[in-house]
Amino acid sequence: MNTLTERLKQIRAQITKAEDRYQRPTGAVKLLAVSKTRPIEDIREALAAGQCDFGESYLQEALPKVEALAGDVICWHFIGPIQSNKTRAIAEHFSWVHSVDRLKIAQRLSEQRPAQLPPLNICLQVNISRDPAKAGVDPAAAPALALEITRLPHIRLRGLMTIPAQSDTFEQQRRAFHAMQVLFESMRQQGIELDTLSMGMSDDMEAAIAEGATLVRIGSAIFGARQPRN
Ligand SMILES: *Cc1c(COP(=O)(O)O)cnc(C)c1O
To answer: How would DSSP label each residue in 139-198?
Structure first.
């Protein structure tokens, strides 16, 4: 069995290889290690192996980890569904939020971001497959929502995020990510400043990199299969 450190190294090598294969500049794709459901010791091991960015989906579970590792240089990303009553803690403890899909949540995050901290980095979650069971703003509504969010003072819109519907083939995976790339470029052409395209997980990382991902969110390929939550 490979160690976590070895798996992390393999993932980094796969990212570099995919950047090369799809004519992406070297270093264009950032690795976010998704540490939801993982113990603090696993995060420490990844940190020791040079990993700085970590993603969490469940606030209750994340806060003790953020506190326990407060002495380390970690960039914490919130990637899970957001309820209104959780925005304050998210605004106080995270550097990035990838899962904003409505104005009200963005307004609360901006209001509640502590003044001594830099603006909170935001990605808009887009429901690119228009799957009624999935979170995210409809792609057609994304530009207008982005424009409203750019007016908020204490958050900074950085990009778009998606979790596409499950696909069976590489080509199908690419299609959904391609639609994201088209939306991303069209919003940039409308003058909205975006530099982050957050897409790709353990099972579809390569397709996402092929279609312009600048950040991939990888959990099980680094930390091993997840136990079901109880
Ligand atoms: C869990 C999760 C991931 C990581 O998924 P893996 O398949 O374990 O790589 C990425 N993004 C989001 C939003 C997640 O909830």
So the answer is: GGGHHHHHHHHHT-TTEEEEEEE--PPP-SSHHHHHHHHHHHHHHHHHHHHTT----EEE
